[in-house]
Amino acid sequence: MTIRQTAGATLGLLAGLTGAAAPAAAEPGHAPAAQAGPNPRFGLVHVDGLDLHAVRFPDKPPADREALPPDVVADRYRRAAESGAGWNRWSLYWDLVERAGQMSWAASDGIVARDVAHGLRTLAVLQGNQPGVAVMDGAPEGLDAGIFTTAGGALTDDPAQAAAVNPANRWAAFVDAVVERYRPGGGLAQARGWGAGAGIGAWEIGNEPNLRAFWRGTPAEYARYLEVAYLVIERRDPEAVVMHGGIADDAGAQAWYGQLLDALKARAAASPLPARHGYYFDKAAWHWYRSPSLLETGPDRARALLAERGIPAKPIWVTEAGLPIWAEHPGPCWDPASPGRADLAEQAGYIWQALPEALAAGVETLFYFQLYDDCGNGPTSYDAFGLVRNHAGNQCWAPFDRPCWQMDPKVAGTPRPAYAAFQVAARELRGARLVRQTPAAAGGRRIVFARPDARVTVAWSAAGAQSVAVDAAAASATLHTIDLAGAVTSRTLAAAGGRYTVGLAAPSNHNGIGGRPIVAGLPVILVERGAGGVRVDAGAAAAPGVAGPSSAGAAAIARDVTPPVLAVVAPLPATSPRRLDLTVVAGDDGSGLDAFLVYAARGPGLPRLAEDWTVVGTVRPWPADRRAGQARVAFEGKPGETWYFTAQAGDRAGNWTALPAGAQATTRIAGAVRGGGSPARARPR
Fold first, then answer.
1. Per-residue pLDDT tens for 296-330?
2. Which of 302, 354, 495, 551 is the most exposed place for a label (fewest CB within 10 A)?
3. Residue 189 — left, alpha, or beta (φ > 0 → left; ψ -120 to 50 → alpha)?
4. Which residues, in sequence order, are CB contacts of 559 under 8 Å at separation 6+?
5. What are the distances in angstroms from CA 645 to CA 12, 449, 615, 668?
6. Structure pTM?
7. Cα–chain-centroid distance for residue 267?
8. DSSP 8-state symbol, 564
9. 95 in a domain, yes or no?
10. Residue 598 CA: distances (Å) to CA of 173, 606, 647
């Protein structure tokens, strides 16, 4: 059977399944070009923040005070916009907003407005304790009181029965006021005349609650803190994304997180609300610092902790990740062996390892900590995490006699090599989907991504210096490199004999435990434009859960450079129940079907860009006839939501169909949207 005949048979199967006219088969090799602009998979911590605009006092309420002049604040946003990041993560501290019983909005209004003006999505961290009480002193006053009052004046935690927030639950009242002001369509958006979707649509509840510096209550008390915030936010803005505070991955993190999950399960045993509301978090937030290998292994550990307790799987967000340097202010004064730190080039190399590792591990969004050094973890840690050096007026510590504790005015406010590395990674990985990766224990690492317009290979050595060959999918490629001084350069590399030969440096950092490297050798990024959807080189092993080429028919598989002819989500009725099955029909006339991905996007607006889609189902290996068949994926939505779906299929040679330009199926979930707030919109990605 020819490719066209296979397509026809598959389309006929689709029509038979649905009773609908089948769509035309897509021509292989005509994928749309990648879109330019910020990468919504990556964000920055503290582009701006409340503590740059307000100050605390030991004996009176906080007050507004600008730490930086307006031109420096503008420069920070310029750097953020030019970095390629799509998000700004910053903290809405309770005590800096509510002062002496009054809400002081000026500073936070300014940050939200600047985020909107510069095209940055906001992840706001709702954090702290009631005014006048340190967060480490315990849970907020009235936390166990009913969250809402009903129309009859009774107390309830159920937002479906709520008429108003209970003012005696001070945390609920604070969260309600903030969300109503800053949600899309809320008070500030109306006052400024912003369009749909402008405002804060993503909220993180607390920061590193497993550390006593941020939370000295019990895990069960934090579960209530999270519960209150989630239910208040959902009532005000049913489309908002809410996540628990980022878990700091220290030695006790898994035990503490287990206690939190146990507390949520205990609440679910006593009330239907936790299970009904997703156990009070839409995303699971974690913090993995210093070693990129933690971003390879950490997400699976986090998923396993949820699965062990029977809590539904959640997308993983890394809301802090970073690597500080020792070689500049405010670093610890030129100590090359400083534990857990790196030099300028190694920090840039960290970016090219951490961001691809996160995407390969299925992390939905990663935030680098942080854009500028600001004051790090001072005054004792002297952490210089910044992609950009502090401006001259932002001297965080009193200079000592040793010169590296003083800011060098000649470089103040300038980017480090890691900033250029972030720009390259954000641009080249925008819209990229994982295809294959080598095992981490193979003496090096190779992660391969496909964009609609290109194949992107990221490689580095975990052992000595080495030269590696990458099978070519195009006559030439752009090779991005980092030299030993940290300079990021790009050049054209021609293929020879169907391969590219690339040199990989040995690891230079040995600042980990026992002298082990924190980061591997400096990576390279190889971009073959015009090679989207082509075969991946045979030297790369399959990604976790992705079947590689079968030993049977290896020669035929090696010759297959054509993607499957079809991958279609079968049409759906106009209205569907909350739980439904999605049927995918696919066909391939080469090496045979191997896997498929199903994507979803929430309406009401039509998805237009690659990043509007989120993977909601995968099946590997393909469960039906490898030439043409169907498979199903379960999906669950919320009443009143409109959903769009599309699919990709991959064959055993590693070829993938392009992500379709539009939706293949759509449906509305039966029932009305619960709660008040803004009209439905797509969740931020």
1. 999 999 999 999 999 999 999 999 999 999 888 76
2. 551
3. alpha
4. none
5. 20, 22, 10, 12
6. 0.78
7. 28
8. -
9. no
10. 40, 16, 4
